Amino acid sequence: MAMLFLLLTLFPQSSSSSLRGVEHYTDVTFAPCPKLCSGNGLCHRPDGICNCFDGFAGPDCSLHTCPLGDAWTDHAVGNDAAHRPATCSNRGICRAETGTCNCEFKRFEGSACERKTCPEGCSGHGRCVSLRERASLQDPGEIVESCTGAEICVDGPCTAVDYSACAKKWDYNAPWEAEKMFGCVCDTGYSGYDCSVRTCPNGDDPLTTGQLDEIQLLECQATGGSFTLAFRGETTKTIAFDASASQLETLMNGLTTLQYSGTDPKIEVSYSDGSAACDTDGNDILITFLQNFGDLPLLIPDGSHLVHASTTPLLTSQEVIAGTKERETCSRRGFCNSSSGVCDCLDYWMTSDGHGATGTRGDCGHLSSSPATACPGAIPCLGYGTCSGAPDYRCICQTGRSGADCSLMTCPQGKSWFSAPAEDDEAHAPAECSDMGICDTSAGTCSCADGFTGAACEYMMCPGTPLECSGHGVCSTMAMLAQYSYTGYYWESSSYTYGADSNNALTWDHDQIQGCHCSQGWEGYDCSLRSCPRGDNPQTKDQVNEIQELACTDADGLGSFQLGFGGELTLTLQAADTAADLETQLTSLSRVEAVAVSYANPGIYVGADGLAVDALQLCRAASQTVRIEFLAPTGNVPLLEVHGAAGIDGGPTVTELIKGTKENEVCSGRGLCDHTTGQCACVTGFMSSNGQGNAGSRGDCGFKSP
């Protein structure tokens, strides 16, 4: 007999069919807990409840829990308090049979769906990185304005130097999405949210006059060693302290970030003294940028490997002339073919040397005919702009128009989904198509990446197919979701806000990221899962129902009011209505299954002798207290709310007399929920109850069969 018991408890039989991993239980006659907690928990006697080990759940501990991640969307639990840890980060379904997340297809990835998938894998022309890493890839030269002794010297006499002060980058660590939002950092020659767009050469418009090349000044004080220079994040090979101007030129020309593929010189280097880059008293090195136009990032020096025979070695850099030449696609005298990366120049314009003469830049910066006498277009600027006239003949386009002849349409802007920070922990500056779409310049419309929508691709779409939220919920922004809080029984209006302060960089997503607010009876990140009945666990003892009291006074019995629960209101209740009338009205509400309404005075009941004429009224001249016992739902039920009271002398008020201590568990903690049907598969020995431990039709597994 002992061997039979062991076999039955260790190897319970089950049906061959299952409902999304929900097993049909069969008899295990002598098992104190369902399936002996599947070996994944401890059985608590005598109530037969499993205490599951970490990673397991369910009445028999047969279910695996899934990883948690900061929620992409959720309901705030305080002002600006959201993105709490959630199963599968609220962007996937937990497969309880394996403990793995089934993430929203092609949009999210990671064990907890915690990462945004990079669009199209960056098309093979870029790197997929997080916003935090994106910040680390910034060029310090875009941030640091100068790198002189004031920044480098540790003290006044400059007895020591620290070049890290000139390598500053903005951090992006505090925001909730720093390691969640991923995007593409494109290779040179490619752009777009998915790195699918070829870039074209940029250049100076030669018809604009009085403009200057960028010139930066280095000063090197050393008698030995070596140094390096960094430009736009790329560092030169080691440069000897005594390198000649031509050697320094050659080493700097090796930088791919000096973006120019032609054969014309990229830079010009000159020394103020001698033929070596560094000398005892400090040599000035002038670097003129010949092919990179506009106000350029600072060259970042690293002289930590320099030495000096008699003092502290020092290498500094600063901008002496900010570049004022244009840095415009195709020199704004042509149009970029984004498929080939080749400029289609206007008539009489062709590739230049960057200085107006013919060359190999691939831009449209050389005018091959007589001087220009008009702006481009059969009608100047095609009627979408104003011609500046001589000598530059540039189109000043209307708002919404761009291009050499104003023929291109601009696209709307939104907060960028993936931009480098402009300060520590501040990113998401406005960008065309929110950096998550490609602008169709023929129509001025954005073609958004999968999972994004809006005129500027400014919204993250709600999940669900074929309908958003599977047709069982409302697609809402984070700010909208904050307007609701869950009582444990239903959603109610909340006073919390999310993103109300437009200057709070940490809640930038308040009007962009969207999630589902599910309708009653549905759950899951996409509202695709049916909810199962909840109820009291019949194995736990010494628990009580919630009892609330309604008190009011009304001398003439003509007053009226309504009661609310879960966002629903009863029909108008009259002061002269009875406890039975109130019970009928409350059970008509969808979230109130069963209540027992009685008079607090035990001497008042239907049929009692000697009752006053108004004794059975909800509100009477001598005041009345009515008790409302919640039979279903169970647990610590939220208070009923009084609405629209009129003509009542005193009250009505609702207070809690006895706090409910029964559970309100899915399938009463005695079964597994099949979310495809919303039905409970009860463990052996348990069946549907009436909510109070007796047999009934709730479908909750709350009745223990004899």
Brief description of this entry?
This protein is 6% helix and 32% strand. The longest helix is centred in the N-terminal third of the chain and has 9 residues, at 2-10.
Explain this structure:
Among the domains are: 34-58, no CATH class; 209-321; 373-388 and 397-416 and 429-462, Laminin, CATH 2.10.25; 464-528, no CATH class; 547-604 and 613-662, no CATH class; 666-704, no CATH class. Helices cover 6% and strands 32% of the residues. The longest helix has 9 residues, at 2-10. Keywords: Disulfide bond, EGF-like domain, Signal. This is EGF-like domain-containing protein. Residues 1-16 form the signal peptide.
Largest sheet features: 5 strands, antiparallel
Query: Shape from CA axes?
Result: elongated
| Poorly predicted spans | 1-30
Strand content: 25-35%
Instruction: For the record, give the distance between the C-alpha atoms at the N and C termini, rounded to a whole number.
Output: 23 Å
> What's the helix count?
7
Please give the share of residues in helix: under 10%
Protein name: EGF-like domain-containing protein
Domain EGF-like: 29-62, 371-407, 423-458
Signal peptide: 1-16
Pfam family, one: EGF_Teneurin
